[in-house]
Amino acid sequence: MSAIIVEHISKSYGDNSPALSDVSFDVARGEVFGLVGPDGGGKTTLFNIMTTLLFPDSGKITLLGLDVEKDYLKVRERVGYLPGTFSLYPDLTVEENLHFFAIMHKSSIKENQALILPIWEQLLPFKKRRAGKLSGGMKQKLSLCCALIHRPDILFLDEPTTGVDPVSRREFWDILTNIQTRGITVVVSTPYMDEATRCDRIALMQEGKIITIATPEQIIQNFKGALFRVKTDHIFSLLQVMDTIPSRCRYYPAGDYLHVSFYEEDTEKIPSLWQQFIQQNGLPAHSLNRISPTIEDCFIELIESNLLFK
Amino acid sequence: MYRIEVENLTKKFGTFTAVDHISFQVGEGEIFGFLGANGAGKTTAIKMLCGLLTPTSGRATVAGFDVKTQAKFIKRNIGYMSQRFSLYNDLSIYENMQLYGTIYRIPNKLLKNKIIESLETLGMATHAQKLVGDLPLGWKQKLAFATALLHQPKLVFLDEPTSGVDPIVRREFWRQIYATASTGVTIFVTTHYMDEAEYCGRLSIMAQGQIKVMGTPEDIKKQMGVSSIEEVFGHLVRS
């Protein structure tokens, strides 16, 4: 059974191009569902509509069988929301914030302590500290506790790990996986592509529309180009040279490699064509190796080809 | 001459040592990555380098000026951009640049030319009257960077400039960084994206207030016997 059914949601702000146009998807109970896409793609607007904070211009959302517009008060009891901007009370202590959110939801810290325990234990040494004085990672952990303290059936998280270091991000995702095993449905957005692979399914959003919805594995399988990586000590100077030459490939830096994606059908010819290309243009010889794409490569391909065909 | 020279720089808050005897130098046109976990002391270190916070001990010169005695000259001679506060949403692109340029006392005529030149490079010349609040985040970030360069600083601090930005815009931003560095401007940058760490000429990784490792990405990986900076980071932060 679906936890969330989104049907034909549209939303505009004033005369600007629509923030969301005709967005539809379902999220299954107990699923971790990821929303990824460029900034301004409509992710936050969608979160605000799903959590009853904003009404859509048209369309309908059903959460756990409840209509988010008509039954918004009931919906609020069943969902937890961790918004993209820090939204706790900076002048209240860690403990006071959690207590406040528990009371607001007619719950208590005791009642649902088991659910938040692994995170709460990390916060305990700071429980008398004001929330505004916590480090970025700790703020996020407290926000998560506050969003979970009434044991929601669905947890919404809008970019919970933006600005968080890689080790803390991994820990945060371990917590999310743990929440999922307790039967809570999770909808999460992220700008980090490595995190997208930890979702059961991903919806890729751009300019208010959903371009594709699939599992991370499916998205990788659907990669159309042939992807190669080039080892070079001077990625950005190589890029500058490549910019001046018309070519039938897409290229971009990826860590210490340059990724090159070719549109050629006959992938076996590519290494020799590449050799020809670097010799003709007097580029230093660089090795070229075929690799399988990551989610980030797929994202770049999907977004850029979508822009091309507009 | 180095653009940044730091020797045993230390900052204590009461009994807590936020920055613990860090030392490094950054040269002209270098892209220096300043990495570390949340709470490792990066922000405190940057505040001292920008002349916003007085060190407890140690010394540092930035753009040739001493952080303890010449803080106001540092502020005039560096550029600064962060993800958290970049531009005013209620002002247009042009007004934002005009405001920053005026604060840095760029003469009117020169400022006008600089803004036009800068907007043409960015491809935003026809959008000069648009409100910054209506721009996509990617545009805002590029614009904020260009604005931080209006007064032609020799050194620019970029504090998590690509935080929350999508993979395509992040790459465009790094091209802007490279183009700027190639004109001799020194770039001091922080990031939580480990692929971006690889784009730095040299980098340092902080944990518990100390610089635990420093060098080119290639050297650091060899030294630690791992294949990615992400692994280096994991080792240092956990231990």
Helix coverage percent of residues of chain B? 25-40%
Q: Which overall shape of chain A is indicated by the principal axes computed on the Cα atoms? A: globular
- Poorly predicted segments of chain B: none
Task: Provide mean pLDDT of chain A, rounded.
Answer: 89
How many beta-strand runs of chain B?
A: 10
Tell me, what is the CATH class of chain B?
Answer: Alpha Beta
- Intertermini distance of chain A: 36 Å
Number of helices of chain B: 9
Tell me the structural class of chain B.
alpha/beta
Return residue spans of chain A where pLDDT drops below 50 for at least 5 consecutive residues.
none
| Helix run count of chain A | 11
CATH architecture of the largest domain in chain A: 3-Layer(aba) Sandwich
Shape of chain B: globular
Report the CATH C-level class of the largest domain in chain A. Answer: Alpha Beta
Strand order across the largest sheet of chain A: 6-7-8-3-9-10
User: Tally of extended strands of chain A?
Assistant: 14
Of all protein chain pairs, which has the greatest interface, and how many residues does each chain bring to it?
Answer: A-B, 34 and 36 residues
Give the overall average pLDDT of chain B: 93
Rounded radius of gyration of chain A (Å)? 23 Å
What's the main sheet of chain A like?
Answer: 6 strands, mixed
Distance between the termini of chain B: 36 Å
